[in-house]
Amino acid sequence: MMSTELLDTKGLVASDLTSLFSPENVVIIGASDRGPTDKAHKDLTRLGFSGKVYPVNPRREELWGVPCFKSIADVPERPGHVIISVPAAMVPAALREAIAAEARAIAIHAVGFGEGGDPAGLALGAEIRAIAAETDIPIAGPNFGGLFRLDSAVMTIALARTGSDGGSKVALVGQSGGVLMFTYEALMDRGVEPSTLVASGSEMSLSCAEYIKHLATDERTEVIGCFIESIKDVEAFREAAELVREQGKRLVVLKVGASPEGRKAALAHTGSVVGSLRAFEALAAELGVVVVHTQDELVDAIELLLNAGTLPGPRIGVVSHSGGLKDLLMDYASAQGITFPKLDPATVEALDAILGAGSSVGNPLDSGFPGLSNPEIYEKCVRLMAADPNIDVVLVQEELPRGPHKIREEKYLRNLSAMTSGENPLGKPVGSMSLSSYSLTDHARAVRKELPGIYVLQEASRALSVITKAGRAGASARTRPGHEPHPEAARIRAELSAKAVAGEAVSLSEFDSKALLREYGIPTTSELRAGNVEAAVIAAGQIGYPVVLKISSETLTHKSDIGGVLLNLKDEEAVREGFAQLQKNLAAVQPDAALEVLVAEFVSGGTELMLGLAQDAEAGPVVAVGSGGVTVELFDDVAVGLPPFNRETASEVLARTKAGTLVTGFRGSSLDHEGVLAAIQGLGRLAVDLDGLIEAIDINPLNVSKDRVIALDALIVLAAR
């Protein structure tokens, strides 16, 4: 069998997808003069595909004016791009025949492989996977939505129109053909003509990551826009995104879907506050991938990245002509948690010198009548904004003229063309925003083409959102921190493995959970276990009053819900009364259980945080940081990061929370910032060392005061063996 594999730039084996996108010929198994195969033939002909199209159908002698072959084995040349469009039950045989014919690439358009969960379809899907695993031929689908490649004139997806002059250097990849076609049409309306589109379908063999890898080294691609429902292989996606970054390309993703909460949500809070989208965003931040949340943002982000490149940061400087718009922008930014950076004093002084009455100096800048009426003043305003050291990206208030309008058109071109051309370009990304969304006319698109390098965004609030997301992605891309295992990692793994249970996730007691945290340098309260009231009194005396009494149980994971935690017990009498109360509370839910208590030091004051570890279905182990206490899920002040961490990456995760603002100093507060960062790093080290053994960890609350960080409560859930 002839290999269709090659080495990519990282030295990893990857499928060669050239014959999928730019085939020597197209073979259609299940060809018909009706339906999608007929449409594909017509589109290939209309676009001017240079190779031959071979129909295969044992019931036809002739089709589309050429001979129709009984079998792919009868095709007179080696098959290039093979389309399989037959009933699901016939696909395995057709796939084997295409492999035997040494097809260069195969696309299974057929459906019926368990998409709805039916047993027969699932069995067929398993058979397809098994066949695909035996060959190195790239196999797309099943449920493959088709692809479009402008320069090779290949179109097997039903697009209503195509671009010209090679199109824009934009590729669209995703699991939903419908979503991609909508995105394609929206970009065409905006004057951006994608040159590549691939609807990957069920991805039983080729995954989205492999399409991204191929496009990362494609000279016709600069921006890859993706719609992803689920990631099949997180390491493959990581490698693909890293390759995109290494090649100087940009990747933007609209990601949907949440991991099933499953058993971990019943045992630990962390799983329910993370969710796969939040975990994916943590992965994306590390890789410099721009993550958007709506279809409109996907379109705007592609427009932005195509014309601005990778943004250096999220700090936006705005030049407007309207005080009302300035007020709106401040409201929009506040609602999104965006802060406009203050201008450097030298910038303010220079703006004051050229602007007078009717303007408002600051950021956003309202240049008022002077900027609106005088091109030289307007250009100076934009240049001063771009030169400010606190600004990464410049956004100006302009709208494309929708019809012939000499004054407006000249103003638009005059105001923007000077910023990217000539002897003194700005040196920072610059573009325009409209106050609201609108449809571009042919005239507007023609004007748009005269401004290469200028991004054109619609609707001010969305413009701020997209630039901020792209800027944060550009600034956050980094090399993954190194990992140094715990010296006793092998021993710890062996001990935990012995406690795991086949087929069932189980929790450690609080005592054992905290012991493991201390192994990784996370401080916990001093505590002793007691099986009767006299032992509890002795333990309290050893620890020192006041103390806390807690039910110690591996089956009661949320003790406070049943009154299983008593705080600030100040003397022996309070301990005796408390022990009796805990016996009563335990009997109400577990009548036959013997009471064992945890006697711990009582800690008051400080700020409550939470740390957590969860296993995400796509991203793997993720660490959550945020505000703690009983309202952790209510306030949802949580940021997620991927382990391992160094001080810088731990600080970045913490800074994305309101809790982080308190820790780093808010209104004179003084807390142990370094202690929190050390705890995050310790939990990250644990996550990597014990990956596969730990299902979830809750450290809540993590008490932070001026001089120490200490875990007051902890729960560790072991994964099923």
Structure notes:
With 721 residues, the protein is an alpha/beta fold. It is built from 25 helices and 32 strands. Strands 11-10-13-12-14-15-16 form a 7-stranded mixed sheet, with helices on both faces.
Q: What's the short story on this structure?
A:
The protein is an alpha/beta fold and about 725 residues long. The protein has 25 helices and 32 strands.
List keywords for this structure.
721 residues; alpha/beta; seven-stranded mixed sheet; seven-stranded antiparallel sheet; 20% strand; flat; disordered N terminus
Low-pLDDT stretches: 1-14, 258-275
Portion of residues within helices: 25-40%
Read across the widest sheet, the strand sequence of neighbours is 11-10-13-12-14-15-16
Q: Per DSSP, what share of the residues sits in E-state strands of 2 or more residues?
A: 15-25%
Our measurement of the CA-to-CA distance between the termini, rounded to an integer number of angstroms, reads: 40 Å
Number of DSSP E strands: 32
Mean pLDDT: 88
Please tell me how large the radius of gyration is.
31 Å
The class by helix and strand makeup works out as alpha/beta
User: What overall form do the CA principal axes indicate?
Assistant: flat
Major beta sheet summary? 7 strands, mixed
Number of helices: 25
Secondary structure layout:
Elements: E1 5-7, E2 13-15, H1 18-21, E3 25-29, H2 35-47, E4 52-56, E5 62-63, E6 66-67, E7 81-84, H3 91-100, E8 105-108, H4 119-133, E9 139-140, E10 146-149, E11 154-155, E12 168-174, H5 177-189, E13 194-199, H6 208-216, E14 223-228, H7 234-246, E15 250-255, H8 262-267, H9 270-287, E16 290-292, H10 295-308, E17 316-320, H11 323-336, H12 345-354, E18 365-366, H13 368-373, H14 375-387, E19 393-397, H15 406-420, E20 430-433, H16 442-449, E21 455-457, H17 460-476, H18 489-499, E22 506-507, H19 510-519, E23 527-530, H20 533-543, E24 547-551, E25 565-569, H21 572-589, E26 597-601, E27 607-616, E28 620-627, H22 632-635, E29 638-641, H23 647-655, H24 658-664, H25 673-689, E30 694-704, E31 709-711, E32 714-718
Parallel strand pairs: 3-4, 3-7, 7-8, 8-9, 12-13, 12-14, 14-15, 15-16, 17-18, 17-19, 19-20, 20-21
Antiparallel strand pairs: 1-2, 5-6, 10-11, 10-13, 22-32, 23-26, 24-25, 24-26, 27-28, 27-30, 28-29, 30-31, 30-32
Helix pairs in contact: 3-4, 5-10, 6-7, 10-17, 11-17, 12-14, 14-15, 20-21, 23-25
